[in-house]
Amino acid sequence: MDDAMLKQLQEVCEAYPIEPVWLVVPSTRDGRLIMKTLAENGISLLNVKVVTMDQLADAAVGGDTASKRMDRNGIHRRLYQALKASKQELNYFTNITISPNFIDQMMTTLLDIKRAGLNASKMSEETFVHPDKARDLAKLERVYETIKHSLEAFDEADILKKAVSSVERTFLPSAVVFFPHDAYHKLERELLLTVKDYIPVYTAAPESSADAPMPNQPLSFLEKEVPSLERGLKQKQANLSMHEAFSLDEEVRAMLETMRQNVDAFDEVVIHYTSTKDYLPLLHESVTSMGLPATFAEGIPLHHTKHGRAFFALVQWLQNDMKLPDLRDYMQEGLFSWPDVAVQEAEVRLLELENRGVQVLNEYALQQLYETAEYSGRATDLALFTRFKQVLDCVPVKYRYDELDLGTAANHLKRMLQVIQPDFAGEEAVVHEALQTHLEAVEICLDENYAWMDILQLIDHECRKLYAGGSLPKPGRLHITPYRNGLYINRSHHWVLGMDQTRYPGRQSEDPLLLDGERASLNSELDLSTYHTSRALWQLASIFLNGNNRSFYVSYASMDLGKNRPQVKAHLYQALEDALAKNITIHKPYRPLDVKFDQVDWWHDKAHLGAGHRFAREAASFYTMHHQLIEAATQRFSSKWTPWDGVLKDPAALVDPKRESVPFSASKLETLASCPFAYYLSYVLKLDPEEDRSEEYRWLTPLERGSVLHELYEDIVRLGLINMEENLSQVKLDELFIEKMSSLEERIPPASLTARDIERRELYASSQLFLNVEKQKPAHQAISTEYRFGFVDHPTAIPTENGESIQIRGKIDRVNQYEDQSIEIVDYKTGRAQKFKDSSYFEGGRRLQPALYAAAYEQNEKQKVRQTGYDYPTTKGLGASVRFSYGEKEQVKLSEVLERLSRTAATGRFYLTDDPEDCKFCRFQDVCRRTHYDQELIEQKQDVDQPEIYRGFQEVRKYD
Ligand code: SF4
Question: Which residues touch 68 (CB under 8 Å, ≥6 apart)?
Fold first, then answer.
């Protein structure tokens, strides 16, 4: 506050020595800062009280509305539920997802309309881009008003309107002093003007800059002559120092370094930032790591703290059906942590469960963990079981779409947070307190019922808006604040960070529910997105001009490293630079910066601003990974055959299939034949491309679906449904299906009812199809299902051409015996039938399974196999069947293929496939990048130094 403003306030207070005077302030926090400044300047506050505009409105109507102000979260939740149920009644907004963010935006727009004195249902349709939009807004307003009415609650606009029409002098003070803020609406202005009819209204106007006129102000203080920013700074005798940094990181470091050199007391400093998202975490981290004492005006967003992240991870985990891989990630990050549980051991136990097909934490998983703990007798295993049980005991529903009341859900979440993070201290305790307080406020909502997944989404939305540890400036501490809240902070050193055009004034996007054009046509009082710029200018210019003898340090970063693009300085930064150039302001400039040269930033600069990816080799040496990457790219684009192309120096011990002690599966051998490089990535380097765990609302993974279908087929055969009379087999199938589905839902909770129903329909149709197809087949007997070979009890070695052998293992889905005693081997495929290639037997080595399974069965059972092949008993495969005869000729060919394959692999040369068709469904495409190479280069490379080995591999392709 400058001297002129203090003088005005002193005069008002002296004019009313004992009568009540109210200061109408933008926020309670500003009010406390103003009172503090007045007291420090010896102004009597005997009868002075601060109120916000809302409190003034409550008082003006006699104070009976304050307790009925609507709870925004409460209305928000009900609107969310109501609109989700009635979305089909909307026409213009029909394609919009009803999300908590949409409801927030909608409530803000409706309030904007009301505060401008309008009524959505009476707005002219011609004003809108489409008449349906006007109708939809009117419908949304009706739903909103109905909900509010049912709760007998009022919003701000209702109370302001009521106050304007029925001000009661009795409840007003002797005078009010109005502290302007950046955005007042029509109803607020009308209230002040109405109050002015009864009592004096003064304006405490900070001097504003002519460069930044404040928009939409209710009173006439702007008519006063205001100085330009340049003149203002001169009059105020301000010190100004400016700095351009390369990155945000450097900007913050430079600021703290300069502060250390130039400031004697921390509590003389306030740091203003323009972007909460970019600067708050950085500032928080920097002051914490440097051990600087600081207060944060808004506190820290909960998701920037460990305890907060643990809570959001918990909510997300519950939304995703408590998947074990996510649980492992959260434990590794320390978000779910227990003193008696070792993370590495827990990870092993969870991986064991996943390998057994358990994908979520449920009763079945607990039972498995308990058995492991009982068997091993280890305390850590028992602790893991106990902790997970505690977590599961707190889950209040069986399925994500089960309904329950909000209060119970909040109570369970509260307990669960305690369970996953039992130990916390210091700042984390403040975060815990903030979360607990919010959840306790929700706990009273026992009459609101929602689906569990909706509750999780709503609570996540509400808690993401929470900040912890917000504070007023305190003695001995730096104060850190968004510039919007910094106007009334009376300190002498002001740092302003983030003065680039993107962050200041930044751009405000139009409200999609009510566009600027529509707002302008409806009413001149409605806020436009363009006002954002002039407000931002007014707010910051006011900080520069409000106070005498202040020092300002202003900075921006010229590069946004996150987006890899340069940034332009803000207009106000330029204006200040001009003022500085005219040598207007500097009394005691700060000493020049002594910031150390930062090699990482320098190399970043080279990498991003220089010649794209063409790093200087020295630059790359800074980053080991980059260096290797360049080396790999150079080698792979050469015509030489290099280790980066899949060649091993000492291969035999590692990769000769005949020497492998672990038996091969058919698919492993088929991969080797399809593309040796894919085999190398998968089985030698053991790369496992990361699964996309993005939120996808489906029930079963392809693997789970395949395994359920196999179980169903096996049961149909085992229970003899194929040979039963039509009606009976149908009844039995239905019984079997219902039983299977209910145990499946226990094991793997469906993502949603819709996902479950779609999947169930498909599974049922495939089971039905399987039964129908089987009934039509010639009479046969399934003498074995799920026939296992190659495991400890049935070691199986298939001979190769030169008399050696390869160990193999597998599971034959079904072995049939026909009336003529001939044997048939069948494998079920759950995908589409490969019509075009099924005429080929070995398909150039890519199809080995039918012959391998036949050979394995013959070897173990000493029975001749007549034919072997696949069935496709699903809705995708349409019940197709493919059979290949099997005899001595095929046996010989199989041994030849196996010989050629193992010989090539033993050389340690893993060629890229010669047919790009093999790449279509390859999961290693991103790693391999075959599509980036010319076919000519690939052929040249593969053939160049030892052509005979490559030709050996190509011989496999001759087996059709
Ligand atoms: S993308 Fe093609 S060449 Fe590369 S590993 Fe996969 S199948 Fe082989």
Answer: 152, 153, 154
Query: Per-residue b/e over 270-301, b at no fewer than 16 CB within 10 Å?
Result: bbbbbbeebbbebbbebbeeeebebbbbbbbb
Identical fold for domains 229-299+473-592 and 658-929, yes or no, is no
Q: Residue 735: is its pLDDT beyond 80?
A: yes
Q: What is the pLDDT of residues 239-270, one digit of tens each?
A: 888 888 888 988 998 888 888 777 778 888 99
**Tell me: domain 658-929, CATH 3.90.320, correct?**
yes
Which run of H or of E encompasses 773? helix 753-776
CA-based nearest residue to 480, from 301, 298, 264, 253: 298
Please, which pLDDT band fits residue 183 given cuts at 50, 70 and 90? low
Confidence category of residue 439, pLDDT binned at 50, 70, 90: very high
Q: State the SS3 of 203-216.
A: ECCCCCCCCCCCCC
651, 946 in Cβ contact below 8 A? no
- Tokens representing residue 239 in the block: 């010190």
Cβ atoms of residues 815 and 824 within 8 Å: yes
Cα gap 839→843, rounded to integer Å: 9
Q: Which atom of ligand 1 is nearest to the CA of 918?
A: 7
- Delimit the domains of the chain by residue range: 3-66+161-204, 70-153, 229-299+473-592, 303-468, 658-929
For residue range 409-419, what is the model confidence (pLDDT) as tens digits?
Answer: 999 999 999 99
b/e per residue 793-821 (b: at least 16 CB within 10 A)? eeebebbbbeebbbbbbbebbbbbbeeee
Is the domain spanning 3-66+161-204 CATH 1.20.210.10? The answer is no
Chain position carrying tokens 């490089």: 677
Q: Ligand 1, closest atom to CA 924?
A: 6
The phi and psi torsions of 4 (rounded to 5 degrees) equal: -60, -40
- Substitution candidate for ligand 1 out of 671, 680, 685, 922 with most atoms within 8 A of CB: 922
Is 212 a residue whose pLDDT tops 80? no
State both tokens at 473. Answer: 């400036």
* pLDDT reported for residue 837: 56
617 C-alpha to ligand 1 centroid (Å)? 30
Give the distance (Å) from ligand 1 centre to CA of residue 915. Answer: 9
**Nearest CA-CA partner of 5 in 481, 542, 427:** 542
Tokens at 16, concatenated = 């009313």
Q: Which residue's C-alpha comes closest to atom 2 of ligand 1?
A: 919
Mark 164-199 as b/e (b = at least 16 C-beta within 10 Å).
beebeeeebbebbbbbbbbebbbbbbbbbeebeeeb
Please give the class, per CATH, of domain 229-299+473-592: alpha beta
| Percent share of the chain, pLDDT over 70 | 88
Q: Which residue has the tokens 């009313």?
A: 16
| Ligand 1 site, residue 912, Cβ cutoff 6 A | yes
Q: Is 338 exposed, middle or buried (0-12, 13-18, 19+ CB in 10 A)?
A: buried
Neighbour-count burial for 115-147, b at 16+ CB within 10 Å, e otherwise: bbbbebeebeeebbeeeebbbbbebbbebbbeb
CB 561 within 8 A of CB 512: no
Binding site membership of 919 for ligand 1 (Cβ less than 6 Å): yes
Q: pLDDT tens for residues 482-513?
A: 988 877 788 888 999 999 988 988 877 788 88
- List the beta bridge partners of residue 178: 24, 203
554 three-state secondary structure: strand
pLDDT tens-digit readout, 748-796: 777 667 778 888 888 999 999 999 998 888 888 889 888 989 877 778 9
What pairs with residue 481 in β-bridges? 272
Pocket test for ligand 1, best of 671, 846, 912, 921 (most atoms within 8 A of CB): 912
In this model, does residue 65 exceed pLDDT 80?
no
